[in-house]
Automatic annotation (TrEMBL):
It catalyses: L-ornithine + H(+) = putrescine + CO2. GO terms for biological process: putrescine biosynthetic process from arginine, via ornithine. This is ornithine decarboxylase. One of its GO terms (molecular function) is ornithine decarboxylase activity. It comes from Pelusios castaneus (West African mud turtle).
């Protein structure tokens, strides 16, 4: 505990047998009598820990450098710092955030191929040496601003099947890579390796195989030119929840043989990755409150749609929207669906509903259509898997404040985290220990919950 500072990171211990869902229900019960029904998150830090252990089980040769951009909450950074992860930072501010938790500069990669010169200088002044590039201009900037930098050449991938494409903006082709290596040699800059990103929300693991094979080509080019490259960075793109077609282990089972083929263990190449979504998506659940409601009668809507059930459709207005947490709908192509906090009664009528955010903008629609029982102003809706690309890009447009985040962790998870912090990660032992941790965030909707008070201690660490 003492290696943490005690600001901005407090969480509630879960009593044995209680889950993050219980905390959420408890909070809802607490505020139900009051008018103060602001949207809020419950985030399970134990879920982040479980992801970390699962990572090493699936990708034992790959060190994760968490992509801070995905969710820059200090509690997340501190948790991953304690677990010994590295960090992918995109800017001076992210570097400052990570370094404020005591992470040494060697555990940071400045993984933005196009950087402002003053921010390159900031990295140099703070010991951060690893950084990516994909152009000659960037090479020249780095040569002047940070001659001791250890550069990683980012190559383009075929990310046409990813949910969010990145190679439209970044990444050198193989042909350009050779020119860049030659130029780096002239400028006397150290190129230590190759990075790529298959696109966020990867749907085809073969993209990794092609990118790893391309990286091998660039390593060989580098060797011909006299570089001693020793770092492969396989980027992000891994799923963060189970509601996806392609599961994490399905991807890693394709990556591992490709790594063994192109970068065998005895090659001495260090392999890192930059997972963002993977670590945080499933840890966060958002609770929003219905602040307004409109009933649209069938004749009013002018729709002949047979499925406009029961003669009316319903519009709900909730207190977080696309300018807040649900910016993931616009920027991350997310499709969200609510889980009702109240159990529906048997034989309850279902209505076609739309769900809208609180701002005055017509763009602020969260769900276009969802069939559910009728709800009232003051009722709650939950949205699971809301940790990735949500809070990090949320604005306060129209004056609506961002939801507060309530962090929780079970005692066994806290103990395992401390153990990993003190002794480092011990693959087999920690995998066994994590198997005994209670699940917290991945609950079934409508599950029976404990009415009793569940959270015993609140701790600042
Ligand atoms: C350079 C870089 N690394 C890592 C990530 C994280 O990707 P993901 O959240 O898909 O793991 C991103 C996301 O945009 C990125 O741009």
């Amino acid at each position: 505990m003492n290696s943490f500072s005690n600001e901005e990171f407090d969480f509630t211990f879960l009593d044995e047998g209680f889950t993050a869902k219980d905390v959420l229900d408890q909070k809802i019960n607490e505020v139900s009598a009051s008018d103060d029904k602001d949207a809020f998150y419950v985030a399970d830090l134990g879920d982040v820990l479980r992801k970390h252990v699962r990572w090493y089980k699936a990708l034992p040769r790959v060190t994760p450098f968490y992509a801070v951009k995905c969710n820059d909450s200090k509690a997340i950074v501190k948790t991953l710092a304690a677990l010994g992860a590295g960090f992918d930072c995109a800017s001076k501010t992210e570097i400052q955030l990570v370094q404020s938790t005591g992470v040494p500069p060697e555990r940071i990669i400045y993984a933005n191929p196009c950087k402002q010169v003053s921010q390159i200088k900031h990295a140099a002044n703070n010991g951060v040496q690893m950084m990516t590039f994909d152009s000659e201009v960037e090479l020249m900037k780095v040569a002047r601003a940070h001659p001791k930098a250890k550069l990683v050449l980012r190559i383009a991938t075929d990310d046409s099947k990813a949910v969010c494409r990145l190679s439209v903006k970044f990444g050198a082709t193989l042909k350009t890579s050779r020119l860049l290596l030659e130029r780096a040699k002239e400028l006397d800059i150290d190129i230590i390796g190759v990075s790529f990103h298959v696109g966020s929300g990867c749907t085809d693991p073969e993209t990794f195989v092609q990118a790893i094979s391309d990286a091998r080509c660039v390593f060989d080019m580098g060797a011909e030119l006299g570089f001693h490259m020793h770092l492969l960075d396989i980027g992000g793109g891994f799923p963060g929840s189970e509601d996806v077609k392609l599961k994490f282990e399905e991807i890693t089972s394709v990556i591992n043989p490709a790594l063994d083929k192109y970068f065998p263990s005895d090659s001495g190449i260090r392999i890192i990755a930059e997972p963002g979504r993977y670590y945080v998506a499933s840890a966060f659940t958002l609770a929003v409150n219905i602040i307004a409601k409109k009933v649209v009668l069938k004749e009013q809507s002018g729709s002949d749609d047979e499925e406009d059930t029961n003669g009316k459709t319903l519009m709900y207005y909730v207190n977080d929207g696309v300018y807040g947490s649900f910016n993931c709908i616009l920027y991350d192509h997310a499709h969200v669906k609510p889980v009702l906090q109240k159990r529906s009664k048997p034989d309850e009528r279902y209505y076609s509903c739309s769900i809208w955010g609180p701002t005055c903008d017509g763009l602020d629609r969260i769900v276009e259509r969802f069939d559910m029982p009728e709800l009232q102003v003051g009722d709650w809706m939950l949205f699971e898997n809301m940790g990735a690309y949500t809070v990090a890009a949320a604005s306060t447009f129209n004056g609506f404040q961002r939801p507060t985040i309530n962090y929780v962790m079970s005692r066994p998870a806290w103990q395992l985290m401390q153990q990993i912090e003190e002794q480092g990660f011990r693959a087999e032992a920690d995998e066994q220990d994590v198997g005994t941790l209670p699940l917290s965030c991945a609950w079934e909707s409508g599950i029976e919950h404990h009415p009793a008070t569940c959270a015993s201690t609140s701790i600042n660490v």
